[in-house]
Design a protein that fits this description.
Elements lengths: L4 H50 L9 H11 L3 E7 L5 E5 L22 E3 L11 E5 L18 H6 L2 E5 L4 E13 L13 H14 E4 L10 E7 L6 E12 L17
Parallel strand pairs: 2-3, 4-8
Antiparallel strand pairs: 1-2, 1-5, 3-4, 5-6, 6-7, 6-9, 8-9
Amino acid sequence: MERTPEYYLTKGLDMVVNGVAAVIFLCCLAYAGYALWDNWSILDGSENALKTMVEYKPNEAEGLSYNFSQLMAMNPDVCGWVVMDHTGIDYPIVQGEDNFEYLDKDALGNPEISGSIFLDCQNNRKFTDPYMVLMGHHMQAGKMFGDLDKYSDETFFQKNTTGKIYLPDRVLDLETAAFLTVDAYDKYIYRIQWDNVSERQELLKRIYEQAQYTRGEELTTEDQMVALSTCSTSGTNARHVLICRIVHSSASEEGSGKVYVETENE
């Protein structure tokens, strides 16, 4: 059979198409490999940073001030350590000059894409405000605040209710109260200054309006609260928020979480 010019043209086009397809496949394979390596390096970097810090994790038996003096010598921005029981949340807390500083720095101040758990820059670093917000990235494998996802399961939320915040001079016992999914620009949940009872009632109203789940006694304006916030996969601006009440502070004379100062107009 005689091969015509059209045959060679078709054959050549087939070879080009196959070659392009092979290049695209190899590029996709390379990108997938890079993505896996990148994810691994992020997780590995986060774990290595934590391994460096964990030996300085506050321990009540050893004396909180001793542990924190070492932590703060490494980075004066360290102001606490948060632990939520039965999750991977077990990290130092830092506070930067603004809420961007520790988005890409670890708790030692080194560049780190997984960032740090940080206290809102408007809060008092001594945790004396009536309402405080902790923020952290939503990382894979439950790293940083990724394990807040667990509380989106109602069974887990109802069964796992405790945590602690270690401070240089005391320990705050946390009890979970509500789990929410809100917008990143929610003007109530991310507002820090609540100067009087009537304003705090507005915050409580918002919490219960937005709550997916609640538990325990209803929050009151007498409660001191801590909100743990991270990104949610349900939307670009969506945020998971776990609201906790402080049920005990070792520095409180009455053994309650209420350690903030009431204002005169209350």
